Amino acid sequence: MGLADRLAAIDERIADAARAAGRDPSGLTRIVVTKFHPASLVEELYGLGVRDVGENRQQEFSRKAGEVGDLAGLRWHFIGQAQTNKARAIRAAASVVHSLDRTRLADALHAAAEAGEPVLDVLLQVNLTDDPGRGGVEPDELEALAAHTAALPSLRVRGVMAVAPLDAPPAPAFERLQGLSAVVRSVVTDAGWISAGMTADFAEAIAAGATHLRIGSAITGPRPERG
C-alpha cells in the first residue's frame, strides 16, 4: 500500500470513528507526524492535500522546515519535549506548539518572539501518568499554567494535549483530559482544542472530544532508523 492509500485509509477510519461518536469528521484536524522521514515526504504529503505535519525533535524539525521552505497553507506542529534554550528555533518554524508544560518554557517562547511575528498558538501538555519523565504539567497545576501563559501577549492558548498512559486503557485517560480541557477553558474561554490520539487510540480520543489527532507510521510507513 502506497502513501496515498495509507492516508486515505486512515482518513476513512477517522471519519468512521467520528460518526460513531456523533461528531462531524470535518471538525477534526489530522496531523501527520513525519519523524525521521526526509523533507521530500512532507512535500509528497503536501501534494496529497496534507496541510498539518508534526515533528518531535527540534533539530530535525528546524532542518526539515528549512528544506521544505514556504508551502502555502502548510502548518508545522511541534509535539516533542521542548528545551527553553531552543525556544527561538522552535518558534521560528512552528505554527503550533503542543508541548508547553511549564512557565519557564512559556516565558522562553514569549521572549523569543520577534517584532512583527505572528502570535504563536500553544497547547498545554498534561501528564496523565505517574511518570514525570513522560512530560506534561501535573493536572493540579494546569490552571495556573493556563493563567500564566494567557497573560503573555505573543502566545495564544488553544487548549490541551496529552499522551495516553502505556499501561492502561486509553479511554478513561482521554475522558479525564476532556475534563481538564474545561479547566483551561475556565481561564481562556475559547481554548477548545484537545490534541490526543495516535494510531492505536484515536477512536477513543475522538469519542472523548479530541480535535487534533497525531498519526505517524500508519500513514508515513515504517520510520527510517536515522533522521
Describe this structure in words.
The chain is an alpha/beta fold and 227 residues long. 39% of the residues lie in helices and 17% in strands. The chain has a single domain (3-220), classed as TIM Barrel, CATH 3.20.20.10. The protein is built from 9 helices and 8 strands. It has an 8-stranded parallel sheet with strand order 7-6-5-4-3-2-1-8. Strand 2, helix 3 (58-68) and strand 3 (75-78) form a beta-alpha-beta unit.
Q: What key phrases describe this protein's structure?
A:
alpha/beta, eight-stranded parallel beta sheet, 9 helices, 8 strands
Could you give a short description of this structure?
Helix content is 39%, strand content 17%. The chain has 9 helices and 8 strands.
What summary fits the major beta sheet?
Answer: 8 strands, parallel
- Helical stretch count? 9
The CATH class label is Alpha Beta
CATH topology name, in short, is: TIM Barrel
Question: Regions with pLDDT < 50 over 5+ consecutive residues?
Answer: none
**What is the overall silhouette?**
globular
> What is the straight-line distance between the termini?
23 Å
For the record, the count of structural domains works out to: 1
Q: Which strand order does the major sheet show?
A: 7-6-5-4-3-2-1-8
Number of strands: 8
| Shape-level CATH architecture | Alpha-Beta Barrel
Helix content: 25-40%
Mean pLDDT: 95
Fourth CATH level, the homologous superfamily: Alanine racemase
CA gyration radius, whole angstroms: 17 Å
Assembly classification: single chain
